[in-house]
Amino acid sequence: MEWLTRFLRMRWAAVLVLPPLLFFLAFFVGPLIYLFFVSVHDVSQVEMYGTRLTVENYVRIAGDPFYLFIIRRTLTAGLAVSGLSLLIGYPVALSMVRMSPSRRSLLFILLLFPLMVSNVIRAYGWIAILGRRGVINNVLSDAGLIQAPLLLMYSLETVVVGLLTILLPYMIICLVNALLTVDRNLEEAAQALGAGPARTFFYVTLPLSTPGIASGLLMVFLLTLSAYVTVQLLGGAQSKMLVSLVYDSVMTFVWPRAAALAFVLLAISLAVTTLMLKGIRPQRVQGKG
Amino acid sequence: MSTDMGGMDVVLRHVTKAFGSVVAVNDLTLEIPRGLFLSLLGPSGCGKTTTLRLIAGFEQPSGGDVFIQGRRVNLVPVYRRDFSMVFQNFALFPHMTVANNVAFGLRMRRVPPRERDTRVQEALALVHLAGFEDRYPKQLSGGQQQRVALARAIVVRPTVLLLDEPLGSLDKKLREEMQVELRQLQRAIGITAVFVTHDQEEALTLSDRVAIMNGGRIEQMGTPRELYEHPATDFVANFLGVSNIFEGRVIARQEDGAARIAIGPVQLSIGWEPGLEPGAPVRVAVRPEKIRLGLPDEPGGLPASLRHVVYLGATTHFYLEGPDGASLVVHVQNVSPDTGLWAPGDWVSCHLEPRSVFVLRKR
Amino acid sequence: MRHTSWTLRIVTLLSLVIILGPIAIVILVSFSPSDFFAFPPRGLSLRWYYEFFHIASMRGAYLLSLEIALIASVLATALGTLAALFLARRRGAVVGLLNALFLSPLVFPTIIIGVALLLFYRRIGMPILPGLVLAHVLIGTPYCIRSVLASLQAFDVSLEEAGQSLGASPLRTLFLITLPCIRPGLLSGWLFAFIVSFGELNTALFLTGPGVTTLPIEIFAYLQFQGSQLVIAAASTLQVCLVILLVVSIERLVGLGSIVRSR
Q1: What is the tens place of the pLDDT at every residue in C226-253?
Q2: HSE-CB for C171 with a 13 A CA cutoff
Q3: Which among B180, B197, B178, B241 is positioned nearest to B39, based on CA atoms?
């Protein structure tokens, strides 16, 4: 009769997990599978997609120099944003770790708060600063330093700067959490063995923070890939990225092509994720590698 | 299905519990009569907590049966068994007042509000916490929280009270006070109690009976005196206090029934037990306070050399090396000033009192 | 050492400036009395706020965003709590897989979720508003799971055992003991899901439609196609105020540090 109790207990577990599981299967896994399904069909003029199974959509993308150029630009921007956020974010994380807990909590709030403001508003902030009638041009022309307004918008650099400031808090938070787990004793042990502050940092602190570095880089990179509104508002037509192409493609209603492009974006995300984790190997620190 | 268990409130029959490949409880049989205060004593990992949880129902036995008041409860879920439990960390509901905590079990049993209030008052009075009804657990000290946990457990008048190292997180003085209160309470209500602890002093202080557990089995169960004076196995002998162990040989069975044994050059007569056939080897143990030290040339004693002396005020502990290199410990009460005269390096003779020599059975 | 710590402090300050600066500028701009932005501002005026409340599409978008956020966050909290209760104390390969599945929308490019749902909804004929709400439920649930899980992991199992030993069935234990004790996790999860839904862009881009717009999308459309941009500043400031209100609430209830740590 032992199976009876086990069965009853499983019924409990099922009650708990089935609603979210079914929801996720129906509205997450299912639609993704469907999207892939559509991407491997040919285009149809009347229906959403044709009847023939084919990889021609992917082949088209792989063979088109324009797409490849955009992909290259997307990767460059992604790497730039992640790299810069790491460079700037690390010192901030270091100073936060050395703060008193109450100060640190205050800074956490200051960093968390902008993340909850919609990206469109944060991008608009940069328009208000860099635009033709924005803060910078206003100040410079009022001071008589320029005659005509500077064109600071609609370039790749603008996009990178915008994304950097929007995603920097993610990086800082990831790093702080990782650095907080670095045992103070380890740093002190290194110093007792004769390592100065710089060597302690490079040989002890930095390596032990790799899980935070990995998760920060990953998070920022993936969010860059997905940041349509920021790219569109700050980059304009001159600085389109892969995500812009996905959007444009969807708006043409040529579903198989749009679906394929979306999956190319997904593939790039997965590839970068794998490479980054392999390269940085945070498991070593986490005790699993 | 109820069977007459002869006044036994809790019975475990051949109960086994395995977690994967780890066997926590191994073919355990235990009978606990009504009103008994039983302690389960043993080192960590011996299975005592698992046994308690098997009685409670938080674990299901892999084999064997559990009975509470004659009813087989293997398949009965925790919340339908008639017991209550005091947890090591008190487990008081932080979001409820003291009164609501204590009343919780009564609410579950659908006791009407007025009766509920009366019984809560009674229970709090019993644990000397009258007037604390509206406080919250975090406002109470450790000892007070412990008493609320106790009140909560007894107010429902359960058949069995289970206690899982409840005094472990209290400081020494408080623990000793609570031990006395707990025992008085249990006697006053007449409830059957099963108490888990790793602290032998605690077990010996509180219990009617103690079951010493090791490796998922009960090594020995008996009154505190029985266990200390007549340990059945090496493990029990060494777990409760210290023992000196000697290897000897049985010489003969005497006419008066006693067994004559030889330990080194010394011969003594001890109570006979099955297995003590002439010529058979025998292992015996003697408690440190039951060895008398004498001058080296005094006959009838084992020669030993003194290695280390520790003066402890009321007693002196002597650490010796026996004939075959064995370590011996002797505790002597500082009655006579002579004990201060012996120094490391001296030779002495150790005299064993035959009635305090007990035979060890290896497990 | 002092030299280093001054460098760190300066970098930290600069970082905060570039992160918070744009938002501060937007708030400042919203009070500008003139049609165009002048810096330094020549005075303060609430005209853009009046204008915001007068434009039906703006007002409507704000209200709809609130509505969607409310419904989506409640559903996300319900689903997230169930999932967290399941995941909290189990081990095993299946549980690990489920954990990964439930938390994946956090790292998954949301733009792709938007596209996939758009296609899916077209196929099954899902009406716009419920479709958008469900998309936000999907995106908000991981936040709730994380928040509730953190609370559950701090919650002592022996409290549940104590409840059961006193006669409470698993269901009563859940409602009388567990849920009250993890209330901070529930509330902060709900607030997170609300805020995320309110500001969400990438799925709303594809899933909004005629008559059904959220505030961020409305702001985006204005920025792309309309001339009068300063009313955007007012709309934005209103959203920022909402966020500030909610962030302060979370902080009061739970203390943000504990939530952020689980990242």
Answers
A1: 655 788 889 999 999 988 888 788 777 7
A2: 3
A3: B197
DSSP codes of every residue in A229-240: HHHHHHHTTTT-
Q: Which of B177, B213, B263 is nearest to B17 (CA)?
A: B213
**H helical segments located in chain A:** 2-24, 30-39, 56-63, 65-97, 101-116, 119-130, 135-142, 156-180, 184-192, 197-200, 206-208, 210-225, 228-235, 242-251, 255-280, 283-286
- Of C64, C51, C54, C49, residue with least CA distance to C210: C64
Q: Which of A31, A98, A116 shows the shortest C-beta gap to C199?
A: A116
Q: Does A59 touch chain C (CB under 8 A)?
A: no
Residues of B within 8 A of A1 (CB-CB) are 74-75
Q: Distance (Å, rounded) from C-alpha C37 to C-alpha C26?
A: 10
Residue type present at position B351: H
Q: Are B5 and B67 in contact (CB under 8 A)?
A: yes
Q: Report how far apart the first and last C-alpha atoms of chain A are (Å, whole number).
A: 44
**Residues belonging to chain C:** 263
Q: Which residue has the tokens 């268990």?
A: B5
What order do you get walking across the sheet with B358-359 strand by strand?
B266-270, B259-263, B244-253, B281-286, B358-359
Say which amino acid occupies B339: T
- Cβ–Cβ contact A14 with C under 8 A: no
Phi, psi for residue C34 in degrees, rounded to 5? -100, 170
Which of these, A29, A28, A47, A46, lies nearest to A38 by C-alpha position?
A47
What's the DSSP call for residue A254?
Answer: -
Q: Is C181 in contact with C33 (CB distance < 8 Å)? A: no
Which residues, in sequence order, are bridge partners of residue A206?
none
Check: CB of residue C246 under 8 Å from CB of residue C194: yes
CA–CA separation, A58 vs A264, rounded Å? 8
Mean residue pLDDT of chain C comes to: 88
pTM: 0.83
**Residues in chain A, total:** 289
> What is the helix (H) or strand (E) element at residue B347, kind and residue range?
strand B347-352
CA distance B352 to B265: 12
Which residue(s) pair with B332 in the sheet?
B316
User: How many other C-beta atoms are found inside a 10 Å radius of the C-beta of residue A4?
Assistant: 9
DSSP secondary structure letter of residue C107? T
Tell me if B60 and A4 make a contact (CB, 8 A cut-off): no
Read off the pLDDT of residues B270-289 as tens digits, 9 standing for 90 and up: 887 777 788 888 888 888 88
The CA-atom distances, in angstroms, between A201 and each of A85, A174, A184, B309 are 19, 18, 12, 53
- For residue A5, what is the nearest residue in chain B, using CA coordinates? B75
